[in-house]
Amino acid sequence: MIKNHLKRIAAPKAWNILRKSAAFVTRSKPGKHTLADSLPVSVVLRDMISIADTVKEVKYLLTNKQVLVNGKVVRDHRMPVGLLDIIELPSSKECFRLVLNRKGKLAALSTKEKDVVSKIVNKTLIRGGKIQLQLNDGCNVLLDKDQYKTGDSIVVDKKKIKEHFALAPKAYIFLTGGKHIGDAGVVEEILGSKILYKNKDKEVIETEKSYAFVIGNEKPSISVQ
Q1: C-alpha distances in angstroms, 188 versus 14, 207, 215?
Q2: Beta carbons within 8 Å of 115's beta carbon, 6+ residues apart
Q3: Domains of the chain
Q4: Which of 17, 84, 145, 188 has its Cα between 20 and 30 A from that of 103?
Q5: CB count in 10 Å sphere of residue 170
Q6: Are strands 140-143 and 131-135 parallel, antiparallel or unpaired?
Q7: pLDDT confidence of 2, banded at 50, 70, 90?
Q8: Within 13 Å of residue 46, how many CA atoms lie on the same side as its CB?
């Protein structure tokens, strides 16, 4: 049986929390994101955004429908919030996006944007000749035609693809792994499993293709830094 908590000292490295302030911290419930790349909504609200001091206060906010994740009301304080998800607070009209900083820690970035960009991590041909896209956030999208590639990113609105960002030269990427984690820039060239990109300091850097999360064409469509 999965416990509702875990020891802070053993929490995933990406969790940006104080390790020795207490013995335990809330564990994310199984969901769309893995334990390593997500945080429970209670930890985000209490330890990162600081709109609550205790889990009891977080539960009060959730009971009164004061917290939305990706446009949907959250009721469970253990619900996982993952990379690039949007946390919205209707009462204060504030929005935050969960991003990775340069230390590889999950951080809440204040933003006015509400679009959620999802990365295509796999594709499957299913019965009826339809194509099923598997996204990084655990969601699936069904298509009649095979028109997108693994590694591309999409913005989904009401189960329809609103925007598409191809993993190709001139794509704007955000790095989710490696020693340049949290960096961003424009793809210069794709060399097999490697990518050359130019960051805001005009440095051309090589990284693994798998670390690239496309968030725009030439310019970012969302804020990540």
Answers
A1: 28, 12, 15
A2: 155, 157, 162, 163, 221, 222
A3: 5-111 (3.10.290.10), 117-165 (2.40.50.740), 171-217 (2.30.30.30)
A4: 188
A5: 12
A6: antiparallel
A7: low
A8: 21
Q: How many Cα atoms occupy the beta-carbon half-sphere of 117 within 13 Å?
A: 26
Do residues 159 and 132 make contact, with C-beta atoms less than 8 angstroms apart?
no
Please, which pLDDT band fits residue 80 given cuts at 50, 70 and 90?
Answer: very high
- Which residues is 154 bridged to in the sheet? 118, 164
Residue 146 has pLDDT above 60, yes or no: yes
In tens, the pLDDT along 18-77 reads 777 777 888 888 878 888 888 999 999 998 999 999 999 999 999 999 999 999 999 999
First to last CA, the chain: 38
Question: Residues 6 or more apart from 204 whose CB is under 8 A from it?
Answer: 188, 196, 197, 198
0.70 exceeded by pTM: yes
